[in-house]
Design a protein that fits this description.
The protein has 229 residues and is an alpha/beta fold. The chain is built from ten helices and five strands; from the N terminus they run βαβαααβαβααβααα. It has a five-stranded parallel sheet with strand order 2-3-1-4-5, sandwiched between helices. Helix 4 runs parallel beside helix 5, helix 5 packs across helix 9 and helix 9 runs antiparallel to helix 10.
Length: 229
Amino acid sequence: MPLIIVTGIPSSGKTTRVREIEKFFIDNNKNVEIVSEEEQIVKAGFEKNAVYLDASKEKHIRGLLKSEVLKLLGPNSVVILDGSNYIKGYRYELYCAAKANKCTQCTVHTEINRDVAWDFNENRPDELQKYTREVFDALVMRYEDPDSKNRWDSPLFMAFPTDPLNLQAMAECLLDKKPPAPNQSTQNMGYKMILIELQEGEGSGTLLAETALRILQNKKQIRHPTASS
């Protein structure tokens, strides 16, 4: 089943669009799983603005999000990743994960005027949900816009504040088309991602981690046999 990556600058309406997409697929009898960046920040015991000013904390949250997506990708659910997802290399890793799991995927970019986004942020009723000016500006500067020419961002759906999303077209490209066949590099990326997540977490000595490492080592030996073999 599909992976939908929602991306945008702060206060661009990402979670609003996620709820809209979720309702559409539920109304069409699909199970939906949402992986939320804000929820992972709360679970980790971090303060929202502090995360984006600390590279190690932000990396930790990205790792948690990717781990949750990997757990949920499969034949039974539409998975929606609700977060900034502003690094194109990170979106590429998620694309590889979807491809390795034989899942279709798409990107939803919530585009908005920066001044309007700041006004939305300032008018949030919950003070804890607001971005500071420093963090808001930093995230806008860091943001790497998705590009439909990149296979990992495509198909790309633009979501402007006043325009409806073409949810029917989204469903057709996700549910009616076959996912791209995983190639060798994509499959290896999948094993590497599992191994990295386990090593960064608490599973470095588990059977799953050892199995992933063994698979990668065996594949390397097959591609580069020793002189005696």
